[in-house]
Design goal:
This protein is of the alpha/beta class. It has a domain at 12-68 and 81-149: Rossmann fold, CATH 3.40.50. Helix content is 20%, strand content 33%. It is built from 3 helices and 9 strands, in the order βαβαβββαββββ. The protein has helices at residues 12-29, 46-53, 106-116, and strands at residues 2-10, 36-42, 60-67, 82-84, 94-102, 122-130, 143-147, 153-154, 170-177. It has a 6-stranded mixed sheet with strand order 4-3-2-5-6-7, sandwiched between helices. Strands 1-9-8 form a 3-stranded antiparallel sheet. Helix 3 (106-116) links the parallel strand 5 (94-102) and strand 6 (122-130). The chain is globular and about 60 Å long. The structure holds inosinic acid. Inosinic acid is lined by residues 44, 69-70, 76, 99-108, 152-154, 158.
Length: 181
Amino acid sequence: MTNEIVDTYLSGEQVLARIDELAQAVMALGPFDKPLVVVCVLKGSFMFFSDLVRRVDLPLNCVFLGVSSYGGTTESSGAVRLTHDLTLDIANRDVLVVEDIVDTGLTMSYLLGILQARNPKSLRVCTMLHKPARKKVEVALDLVGFVIDDVFVVGYGLDYDERYRNLPFIGAMRFDDHPAS
Ligand code: IMP
């Protein structure tokens, strides 16, 4: 039998303190001539996105983009599927993509390709976590919450097999194998 064990990696307080700083950094990007379009990449960034945007004192348009993620595994397949498209035309708009984690970079590279093709005025990325050890493609990240080790993290929106998204902190996941008795 395999037990899933989640150790605290970043506390909820640490995450929120860093989001305060990131929100200030987002405000420093402005002012913009039209509301900044902030893209929530579903599902993983829903909690980070909502804590970030409520701290940004700028006119914003909040929009949602769904992409497929890991299904019950901790390895990236490299295959990325769009499950929900934006409901706003971003042509000639300032756009900030808000992501939970950049791991291999494959997902973000794919998303930036799609969004850039729609001719935004500017396109920036804010990620809560960056795991550079597993990088497969280079992606320019404008704002990064935390650079983390090569650990599989859950909580604060991030899942393992669609569980743990609701944890109010970021945990490092490990598996403890016990022979069945
Ligand atoms: P990438 O394409 O390898 O950069 O991975 C991006 C996506 O994989 C993220 O948006 C997450 O949904 C998922 N992911 C990558 N690393 C982790 C992790 O440590 N925990 C949970 N999900 C992860």
